[in-house]
Design goal:
4 helices; about 40% helix; mainly alpha; about 120 residues; 2 domains
Length: about 120
């Protein structure tokens, strides 16, 4: 169906192996069960639905979406805006609080030169 995995993804992973503890590529349909999740701290996926469907299934109220590859820190609650709950005092604030905390942490690291913005 294409050569992206062979020509781009696998070489990129090989280039990072001396810098970080990285594995892959891993099939999206096998990497989100509890035993697999115990083996990693972060999942980087190629497409929106490869990550967000399992993330929302596993931790809808806690999840944080982080956009990589841009020149500024961008986080958001994983579940969206919940307009249908607005004004009813029913929404769970955990995801937005986690997104704000993650943005603050990433910003501090970026300011201290520990991470690159993009």
């Amino acid at each position: 169906m294409g050569f992206e995995e062979k020509e781009i993804i696998i070489p990129a992973i090989r280039n990072l192996k001396d810098t970080i503890n990285i594995i892959g590529p891993v099939s999206a349909d096998t990497m989100f069960h509890s035993t697999a999740r115990a083996k990693y701290d972060v999942a980087i996926t190629m497409y929106h639905d490869q990550a967000l469907i399992p993330l929302k299934t596993i931790g809808f109220e806690e999840g944080v979406n982080i956009t990589l590859g841009i020149s500024f820190v961008r986080t958001s609650p994983d579940h969206g805006t919940a307009f249908d709950l607005a004004g009813q005092n029913l929404a769970d604030e955990t995801s937005i609080i986690n997104a704000i905390k993650m943005a603050a942490s990433l910003s501090r690291k970026q300011q201290n030169g520990k991470t690159s913005p993009a």
